[in-house]
Amino acid sequence: MSLLLTSSVALMVLLAGWVDLVFAQSLNVTFMNNFLGVLDSMDLKNFTALVAQVTNGGDSSFATSLSDASSPKTLFVPNNNAFTQPGANFIGVDFLANDTQFLSSVLLYHLLDRKWTQNQLSTTSDTLLQTFLRGNNITFLENNSPQMIAGAQSSNGFQIVNQAQDTFVLQTFQYEHVTVQVINEIVGIPGPFTATIHTAGLTTLANLQAAAGYGTGLDTAIGLTVFAPFDDGFEAVREQIANTSATSLLNNHIIIGKTVRGSDFQFSQHTSQSLMNYTFNQDPMSEKFTVTLNGVTVNIVRTDFLVNNGVIHLVDGVLFNTTVPDLLAVPTPVSSTDISSPSSSSPNLASSMLSYAQPTMTNNATNGCL
Ligand SMILES: *[C@@H]1O[C@H](CO)[C@@H](O)[C@H](O)[C@H]1NC(C)=O
Ligand SMILES: *[C@@H]1O[C@H](CO)[C@@H](O)[C@H](O)[C@H]1NC(C)=O
Ligand SMILES: *[C@@H]1O[C@H](CO)[C@@H](O)[C@H](O)[C@H]1NC(C)=O
Ligand SMILES: *[C@@H]1O[C@H](CO)[C@@H](O)[C@H](O)[C@H]1NC(C)=O
Ligand SMILES: *[C@@H]1O[C@H](CO)[C@@H](O)[C@H](O)[C@H]1NC(C)=O
Ligand SMILES: *[C@@H]1O[C@H](CO)[C@@H](O)[C@H](O)[C@H]1NC(C)=O
Ligand SMILES: *[C@@H]1O[C@H](CO)[C@@H](O)[C@H](O)[C@H]1NC(C)=O
Ligand SMILES: *[C@@H]1O[C@H](CO)[C@@H](O)[C@H](O)[C@H]1NC(C)=O
User: Fold this and answer.
1) Fewest CB within a 10 Å sphere: which of 70, 76, 165, 338?
2) Are 116 and 73 in contact (CB under 8 A)?
3) DSSP element (H, E) containing 304
4) Parent domain of 236
5) pLDDT in tens, 288-316
6) 257 belongs to a structural domain
7) Residues in a beta bridge with 160
8) How far is CA 317 from CA 166, 223, 236, 281, in A?
9) What are 53-76's pLDDT values in tens digits?
10) Ligand 6: which of 252, 277, 322 to mutate, judged by most atoms within 8 Å of the beta carbon?
11) How far is the CA of 87 from the centre of ligand 8 (A)?
12) 367 in a domain, yes or no?
């Protein structure tokens, strides 16, 4: 119980320093200490120590959101074993064990804005769960919109996907307004686009990005949607794209400034960076989407692979028709040495991207023709 006392005393002391400050919402210290005490009594002590470290370090956003009883919440609580390798699920993001803002982001990413019972999690198909993490200097979605956690069914039951390690729920219980889901790993915040495609082995796309002159520029977009072809898809159209500008070709696959998730495909017009409009069609039975641009149609194999500034949809072919001229950029010819297709560098992540291939992921349980 010493951690509980440490947590309580420290929180009390901190609160005393805050009495003159005005908060839109206030941190319920009683709730927090009771709750951390329950987690401590279940030996989830690394997690409670993390909460105390962040809150006592001066960032109360997590504790304030969690303790707000006006609406139900769900909290993923990594067990102690998860803390032996805290960075295991982070792709292209260093786990900064002493950085309060970073750790606060990690905590906010584990907190969901509604009640998700074990039963709901294990009976919905692929789902995006809305977290409390907005921006916070680590994610860069437009309109400061919240980051999602992607979940899917697996042999382990409900599993958090987009993670380097298999990450799943071990135990569930309710404490006041909070549904606690104990998990086996710390959930990695989505990483930068470039690091993610490298890790996932989308090598040709990465080379195309370099050849197009974007460098890591797509990482700094506020809002990003990418239709990401596998290496095989490029190989299949190698001759057709031999003389195509890399920039024009890449621009057919990206939307800058807007995060278009699978659930948004058909609800408004989406225009590529090459200024052409995408058309989406969904097979009513398989629920799988195709996307068409300038007369070329490819299959969307996997929607909603999350990155810190948007979303990647994996496609099985290249939207290669660049006939409409790209007025936005100076064309750079693609040479066959720029676009080569070596094998994947992280089978684990690539298989995680693929093994949950499903047509739609929505932020609620209303999934197509179920
Ligand atoms: C703070 O939390 C305690 C314990 O959950 C609860 O009894 C109390 O009503 C809460 N206070 C406020 C102001 O919400
Ligand atoms: C987890 O808790 C143990 C026991 O208190 C401690 O030795 C270890 O340093 C903690 N690990 C992390 C990453 O905080
Ligand atoms: C965190 O800070 C402590 C004290 O300054 C230091 O000993 C430790 O090495 C730091 N840990 C990391 C992971 O940077
Ligand atoms: C955002 O993160 C960068 C890099 O870690 C850091 O230099 C900067 O101070 C941070 N900005 C804020 C407002 O925290
Ligand atoms: C590409 O350019 C070369 C050299 O001009 C030409 O021989 C070839 O036919 C062109 N390929 C296509 C697909 O247009
Ligand atoms: C794309 O859609 C927008 C909005 O519907 C429309 O204004 C624009 O003309 C379309 N562009 C093309 C190239 O069809
Ligand atoms: C490529 O686009 C042009 C202009 O929209 C169109 O005329 C042509 O038919 C398209 N080619 C293919 C193969 O779809
Ligand atoms: C589910 O999400 C869709 C798309 O975001 C939205 O249109 C619909 O109203 C939502 N349904 C419920 C029950 O929240």
Assistant:
1) 70
2) no
3) strand 296-307
4) 193-355
5) 999 999 999 999 999 999 999 999 999 99
6) yes
7) 151, 167
8) 28, 23, 8, 16
9) 999 999 999 999 999 999 999 999
10) 277
11) 33
12) no
